[in-house]
Amino acid sequence: MLTRRPGVAELHPVRTRRRWSATKIALGISVPVLFVAVWQLSAVLEWVDPFLYPPPSRLVPGIAALWEDGRLVEATVTSVRRVILGYLLGAVTGLVVGFLMGMSRVLRAAFEPFSWAWYTVPKLALLPIFLTIFGFGDTSVVVLIAMTVYFFVWISVMSAVMAVPTGYREAALMLRANRWEMFRHVLLPAALPEIFVGLRIAAGVSVLMLVGIEFVISDQGLGYLIEQGRTLLLLEQSYVGIVLVAAIGYLFALLVKLVGRLFIRWAADDNAIIPS
């Protein structure tokens, strides 16, 4: 008979979790720091053109200048407001429609072909139509972000509900569960992990769509700040905007992940087969 001695993780689970948490934080910080160091070194040694690729040391004065004249705060607040409103609108709609279509074969048969057809249309191609309907204000930006988020959430929710094992449903039916009980105690808990994966992806996509729209039509926001810097060859301004967009995208996805942990405490955060 084969036996296996318990490893360090089994003998000291608390210490192992703490050690891995510290290691994960250190690794997560070290990679960006290394990237910034290589970027700075490349510019100092002129491996790249410092004018076209200004080093991080030149971005600090750029941040200070944009902060002093108020443009940085205004652009950041505008972009964050737009992306949050668009994300919430699209995510709520995607959740509702995804659950309804995932639970109903009739709704899937009726609306899935039409929905997939619209999903394949590049959302920026709809921008002229939205501008005609909603004008050049925030409404067009928010609605277009919401439509983009909706499709990512709808697909993940519908797929997650349809992927719930048949055995779970049959067990609930044997216990005479009604529709609400089936949804509350079977479909929702089983589908939540995959749903939050879709919500995290949609969070990143919403920031991408925001910047794309602000490149094209807006005279406010971080996308406009980046495009203005490129047009006027104020490249430090463009790089400041890029760094802020990256930070917002990361923090947004992290926030969705933390919310997911509150709802799916039973799901493992890191379920690697072999520790490395």
Helical residues, percent: over 70%
Which structural class matches the secondary elements? mainly alpha
Poorly predicted parts: 272-276
**Distance from first to last alpha carbon:** 28 Å
Helical run tally: 11
- Name the shape in a single word: flat
Order of helices and strands: HHHHHHHHHHH
Record field, number of beta strands: 0
What percentage of amino acids are in beta strands? under 5%
Alpha carbon gyration radius: 23 Å
Characterize the largest beta sheet: strand count, sense, and whether it forms a barrel.
none
Rounded average pLDDT? 85
Report on the structure:
With about 280 residues, this protein is mainly α. It is built from 11 helices and no strands. Helix 3 packs across helix 11 (about 235-265) and helix 4 (about 70-105) runs antiparallel to helix 5. It is flat. It starts with 7 loop residues before the first helix and ends in a 13-residue tail after the last helix. The model is unreliable at about 270-275 (pLDDT under 50).
In short:
The chain is mainly alpha-helical.
Annotation keywords:
276 residues; mainly alpha; 11 helices; disordered C terminus
Strand and helix map with partners:
Layout lengths: L7 H4 L1 H32 L11 H13 L2 H33 L1 H15 L7 H8 L3 H25 L3 H9 L4 H38 L4 H11 L3 H29 L13
